[in-house]
């Protein structure tokens, strides 16, 4: 196979890829490849504009607008970096010839879009993305160390020991490898996976599928933004965006009766919901957008390309309303990166829409995307420029291993599956507790911190922001992530955590499970307590899953017991549920279980059951523990709802189940382990309860590593 060698490889030629290339060291060879042509990136399509910190007094407002739009799911450190970097980025763009709109005195003209509290958006007509990206491309072509390769598709990365050494690619029908010291993924969004999208159809999330293949962490892949207003059309293909600036300048939305039904400058996700609701109510495929209120002069000067495109579709937006419908627009999730755009794989970076640095949170604030892409692309190149790359000792062998079972036809379904899985995971309540969990966690913290963390205080003299990664050191089931995060938050409420897995997910050795951000002092102080909870709960979930898997197909439910660690029951029983088991009684008020000593105290099984029925509500089930066939018969005759076969032999239990014949539910208990559960299942009982789930499972080995200041 032919091999192309370069110092730096950039996959994608949108604004992030081009801006990164322009900051590459001049003595380094940089190769930029793209799936189609250089101009076919979503960066060229951006209409509205690019945000900027126009003066220091706007910082707080800019910051709040961003995190409010993102539903406070943003990584605040990343938001701060973006805002603070914006004036320098705008100055650099102007140096390349980008023409932002200015007034007669040469001052910037700022516009305002949805969810912005103040005008802070620079623009060039209604084609700001094209204005910026075309000038970046023009500038990049002047640099002799930059080379471009069009119509080239990345098929996979070349990775060994969690280090990226390049990619496998295809141009026309030729398969070849590109060997690089550093690789930057700038492959754009996922619009090609949707029937109705403003994106180019070739943007199908290939980088995400490749990341899944190589266990590179993803972040919030279900954070997908639907733009409220795309021009409705019966034609197939990409939908034309009607910029949010149109509504920011005063355009109105109407239902089929010509009545306003929503605030036009709501955050995009909220306005999209309003439009979908109105379409359903009116039984229509679109709603109306009135641009005529802006006046013909403003439409022709500020939105000339929207005007022209509407004319092509048969609408004169200076004289009539136009039909609009929501369409997939932007991807806020993606490949997890840190503040320098580093992925969880060495020598591999991700920038632009394919990356998730946490700036946008759950919903992107209008006109932040171009700025975010440029800021973090520049940081990526500056970071890798000071690094020394590892060398692959047998590159040819690596190529053969990578291409042996390569099947890119599965990529789209892989991405859809991970998006849907994340959505389903968010529908579930991550943790339900019946007691004050904070009180329990604080008690655990007090075991470690009675007065101070003397070690941390000795080496850390003051605040220093940083991050640390949660690494899995063996395969297992993760459980307790909300508890893990809560420990850090109780030490310092400003601490943030980004999780790449949900409770119940299978994790593998070496995978990054989460990244935690905050004051390094707080990270160090909370570390041990947080890990104690997570390791213990994940160990229980892992053992439970292994045991429950042995019961698949039998219809038998695996139950836990009250044999739990003092003050840990709420956590341990939750972990059992995460692992696929079911909770027996949580405490003594949850149900009636007549054990040997209760029966002795009452004078026999019949008497105990009668007393229980008399005392308890008719809705309470009564369970009786038995040890032999005589007790089984007595329990059945007394009218027990559930009969627990405790420490009986396999043959005895089979006889008991046959005798009971459905007159009561049956439960097997006593010395149940993973090793003997298959034999116990053969008895035909309805439930098997095992104290081993909580008292005999070992911890799952997890650790916090790679602490660094940021």
UniProtKB/TrEMBL annotation:
The Quinolinate phosphoribosyl transferase N-terminal domain, residue ranges: 453-538
Catalytic activity: nicotinate beta-D-ribonucleotide + CO2 + diphosphate = quinolinate + 5-phospho-alpha-D-ribose 1-diphosphate + 2 H(+); L-aspartate + O2 = iminosuccinate + H2O2
Pfam families in the record: FAD_binding_2, QRPTase_C, QRPTase_N
Molecular function via GO: L-aspartate oxidase activity; nicotinate-nucleotide diphosphorylase (carboxylating) activity; steroid dehydrogenase activity, acting on the CH-CH group of donors
Enzyme Commission number(s) of this protein: 1.4.3.16, 2.4.2.19
Cofactor needs: FAD
Name used for this protein in its record: L-aspartate oxidase
Native source organism of the sequence: Faecalicoccus pleomorphus
Gene, per the UniProt record: nadB
């Amino acid at each position: 196979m032919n091999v192309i060698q370069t110092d730096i490889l950039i996959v994608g030629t949108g604004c992030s890829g081009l801006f990164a290339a322009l900051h590459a060291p001049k003595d380094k060879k940089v190769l930029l490849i793209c799936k189609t042509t250089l101009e076919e990136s979503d960066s060229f399509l951006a209409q509205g504009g690019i945000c900027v910190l126009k003066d220091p007094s706007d910082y707080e407002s800019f910051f709040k607008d961003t995190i409010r739009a993102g539903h406070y799911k943003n990584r605040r450190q990343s938001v701060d970096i973006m805002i603070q970097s914006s004036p320098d980025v705008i100055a650099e763009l102007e140096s390349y010839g980008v023409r932002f709109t200015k007034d007669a005195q040469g001052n910037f003209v700022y516009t305002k879009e949805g969810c912005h509290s103040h005008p802070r958006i620079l623009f060039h007509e209604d084609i700001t993305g094209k204005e910026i990206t075309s000038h970046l491309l023009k500038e990049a072509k002047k640099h002799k160390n930059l080379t471009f390769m069009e119509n080239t598709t990345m098929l996979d990365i070349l990775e060994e020991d969690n280090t990226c050494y390049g990619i496998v690619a295809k141009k026309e029908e030729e398969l070849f490898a590109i060997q690089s010291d550093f690789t930057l993924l700038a492959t754009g969004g996922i619009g090609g996976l949707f029937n109705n999208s403003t994106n180019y159809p070739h943007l199908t999330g290939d980088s995400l599928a490749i990341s899944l293949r190589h266990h590179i962490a993803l972040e919030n892949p279900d954070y997908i933004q639907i733009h409220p207003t795309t021009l409705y059309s019966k034609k197939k293909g990409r939908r034309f965006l009607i910029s949010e600036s149109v509504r920011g300048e005063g355009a109105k939305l109407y239902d089929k009766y010509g009545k306003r039904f929503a605030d036009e400058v709501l955050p995009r996700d909220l306005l999209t919901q309003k439009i979908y609701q109105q379409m359903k109510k009116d039984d229509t495929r679109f709603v109306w957008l009135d641009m005529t209120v802006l006046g013909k002069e403003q439409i022709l000067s500020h939105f000339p390309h929207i005007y022209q495109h509407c004319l092509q579709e048969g609408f004169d937006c200076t004289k009539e309303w136009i039909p609009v419908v929501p369409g997939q627009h932007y991807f806020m999730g993606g490949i997890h990166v840190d503040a320098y755009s580093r992925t969880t794989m060495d020598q591999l970076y991700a920038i632009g829409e394919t990356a998730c640095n946490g700036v946008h949170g759950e919903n992107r604030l209008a006109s932040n995307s171009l700025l975010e892409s440029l800021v973090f692309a520049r940081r990526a190149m500056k970071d890798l420029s000071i690094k020394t790359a590892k060398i692959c000792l047998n590159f040819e062998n690596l190529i053969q291993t990578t291409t042996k079972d390569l099947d890119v036809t599965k990529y789209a379904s892989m991405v859809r599956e991970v998006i849907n899985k994340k959505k389903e995971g968010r529908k579930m309540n991550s943790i339900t507790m019946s007691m004050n969990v904070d009180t329990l966690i604080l008690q655990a913290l007090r075991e470690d911190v009675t007065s101070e963390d003397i070690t941390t205080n000795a080496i850390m003299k003051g605040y220093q922001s940083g991050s640390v990664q949660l690494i899995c050191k063996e395969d297992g089931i993760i459980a307790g992530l909300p508890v893990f995060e809560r420990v850090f938050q109780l030490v310092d409420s400003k601490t943030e955590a980004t999780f790449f897995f949900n409770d119940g997910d299978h994790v593998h050795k070496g995978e990054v499970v989460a990244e935690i951000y905050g004051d390094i002092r707080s990270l160090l102080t909370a570390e041990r307590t947080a890990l104690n909870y997570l390791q213990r709960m994940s160990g229980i979930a892992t053992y439970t899953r292994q045991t429950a898997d042995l019961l698949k197909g039998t219809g038998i439910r695996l139950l836990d017991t009250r044999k739990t660690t003092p003050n840990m029951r709420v956590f341990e029983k939750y972990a059992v549920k995460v692992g696929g088991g079911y909770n027996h009684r949580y405490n003594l008020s949850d149900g009636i279980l007549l054990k040997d000593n209760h029966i002795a105290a009452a004078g026999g099984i019949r008497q105990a059951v009668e007393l229980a029925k008399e005392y308890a509500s008719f809705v309470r089930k009564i369970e009786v523990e038995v040890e032999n066939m005589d007790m089984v018969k007595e329990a059945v005759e007394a009218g027990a709802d559930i009969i627990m076969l405790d420490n009986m032999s396999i043959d005895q239990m089979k006889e008991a189940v046959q005798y009971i014949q459905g007159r009561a539910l049956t439960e097997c208990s006593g010395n149940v382990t993973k090793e003997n559960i298959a034999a116990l299942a053969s008895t035909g009982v309805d439930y098997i309860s095992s104290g081993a789930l909580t008292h005999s499972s070992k911890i799952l080995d997890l650790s916090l590593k790679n602490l660094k200041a940021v």
